Amino acid sequence: MNSPQPPAQRGSGAEDLARHRIREAVNAAVSRETSQTSNEQGAPMVLADGSYRAPVSRETFTASLPEGAVVLPEDMNAEVSRETSFDDDLPIAVEARRAVDVLNPEGNVLPRPRFRRVFGVANQKGGVGKTTTTVNMAVALALHGLRVLVIDLDPQGNASTGLDVPHQAGTPSSYDVLVDEMDIRQALVPVTGVPNLYCVPATIDLAGAEIELVSMVARESRLRKAIDSLPDEFDYVLIDCPPSLGLLTVNALVAAREVMIPIQCEYYALEGLGQLIHNVELVRAHLNSDLKITTILLTMYDKRTKLADQVAAEVRGHFGDKVLDTVIPRSVRVSEAPGYGQSVLTYDPGSRGATSYLAAAKEMAVHSGKGED
Ligand SMILES: Nc1ncnc2c1ncn2[C@@H]1O[C@H](COP(=O)(O)OP(=O)(O)OP(=O)(O)O)[C@@H](O)[C@H]1O
Ligand SMILES: [Mg+2]
Questions:
Q1: Residue 321 C-alpha to ligand 2 middle, in angstroms?
Q2: In this structure, are strands 292-301 and 148-152 parallel, antiparallel, or unpaired?
């Protein structure tokens, strides 16, 4: 895709130019994507009844736990006891309880997918809301009874920060899983105050992993192998990707069955879209024939700007029902929450940011057929 220039002037001429360029950008992205659909192989990922076909073998988890592994709650197998429970009185647990009271007063449980759904949350454009989306979607799903694992695959460690999970150098982390083949169960930790939610943190060590991986055997599929070894009981795995298309993101795309792309409602956010889609196609063609872009989420929507509407309309026009109906508004509360090691759902459950992420998560969980061709 050609790098577009910003409109040189304000006013209707500039708006027309912006609209034209948005259309061009999305057209270029989409034409690449659709030209590759004939390469797809295998059965559909999401079944007609909305359930999800197994991304990995789901044999019962019987392997003995490695030393240091987190012991998952016994009721992970129980279909009945899936309500959230708050066993401690830590401030963050109190916040989580308050969040559930506000956001889920009737104690509803979201439908559990028949098979685990693994998402790579990707967009090589920086700052478009990947981490914010990963964290808040994960918390929303977990507060509604689903078992969720967040894998922080970004050396910045922002998802770990947002979930308040320790991630100082030396902590068992995604680096150890990828580079040293540590058992992933040794690296995952429960997120305090949010039952059902676990995280594999990222430490700064991960910054070197891109280079270290280059010479390694099966360098693209190491995360997939680790996720395949996870207990069945996880319903959702959300992988927060770094803002690049290097080996870390490739590992996420090989491990995932679904790609979720947060798109910021701003002109430049569309710039890298074609390249991202092209990379998804390459991974699908060569490394993971099941991979699909199923979910696009419009983020940081500012209703006061015409551009936000234009971007949203163009993206919807081209990607159809892959785009969630729910749009995440630009909101100060969303951006404040990570500073307190919280999601916006626990930080300010009544805020528009919280209710929007909850609605987006529900859409994703309930309409799992979205994005199916
Ligand atoms: N809906 C929102 N309203 C206001 N601020 C937001 C919203 N979503 C995200 N932000 C803020 O925008 C910044 C970028 O968000 P985020 O870190 O989620 O993006 P990212 O795509 O993960 O970035 P990176 O590419 O660096 O990993 C953060 O400061 C975040 O708090
Ligand atoms: Mg991020």
A1: 25
A2: unpaired
